[in-house]
Structure formats: C-alpha cells, structure tokens
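Chapter review: from sequence to fold.
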Amino acid sequence: MEQLFLRIESLDQRHPGLTPAVAISFHEAARVCLDRHHVSPVSFALDHEGDQLEALIQWETADPRCLAAHAYETKATEEGAYACALAAVEVTEGLVAVHQAERRTGCDYYIGEAGRRFDDLEDCLRLEISGLDRCNRSAVEGRLLQKIAQAQAGKSNLPALAAIVGFQAQLITTRRVWAT
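The token string follows.
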C-alpha cells in the first residue's frame, strides 16, 4: 500500500482560499502542537467515514521564536488543526480550501475539488474543523458529535464535512454532515 503524507507545509500553493501568510501561520501552529507530544516524523490515523487509513506527518521542530509566536495554546491548537485537517481532506477527498466561511454557517472553510474554479460557493462543501491537544480517541469522537451538530445547525443548506484533529491521540477523524 502506498504511504500517505499529510503535507501541512505550503498549503497556500494547493489551497486557493489561503494566502501565504495564513498558510504559514497554520503550519507554524501545527508544528508547535505536534512538538508538544511527538518527534517528527509521526504517523497519524485517519478515520475517514469509517475507513481506517494512516498518514505520515513530517515537520521541522519549532524554534523559540515560533513557540513564542504561538504561545496561546487554545489558538495554536485551533490553527494547527486547520493545517492538519486541510491536509487530511486534500489526501482523502482531493478537496482544498477555496474560501473562509462567515459566522453562523456552521463551518470554518468552504472546500472544493482541487484545480477547479469556484465563482460561486454553491458547488462547495462546508468544512467544520476542531482541534484537541491532550486527548484520547474517545475525546475526539465526542468532539466529532458536537461538530456534526454545529454543522447541521449552521445557516446553510450545503452539505458539510466535520474534521477533528487529536494531536496527542495521533488521530484525524472526518465525517460527512447533511443539512437537516
């Protein structure tokens, strides 16, 4: 079986909804979060719609300046999860971030097929992302249920995907969410 890689670096080159500055910030935050529990490279389980995959993440250890810039743990975990979740949906679904979402949509980003132009977001999926730092599989699964409910309650009729990144658990789980 082919080795899968979660490419958390240079996301802006593959995800048109991210600028270089945003992508760098997400990448740095992911490095900080990964460094809390692991040494590069590390294998993460990808629980995608119940299918069990495995992917390798490689990163450069965060230096003191990067650690200082991402010292707010909650924000670093959130932004680090953005990098890992976007890399995961790129690998598992071939989807990329095309636009950041507005408040109350029940998601963080709109995602669509790589290489396609999106003049209108109606052909996109919504992506709701959450990150957990210190956690186990059970905590990731519990958060997934919360995020599915949040996506369903969003003011949008577009289908969604919920993605939860468990940094300590080495797990990224994704599920489709259909509007209710």
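Two observations follow directly from the output. The two ends are 37 Å apart (CA to CA). The mean pLDDT is 95.
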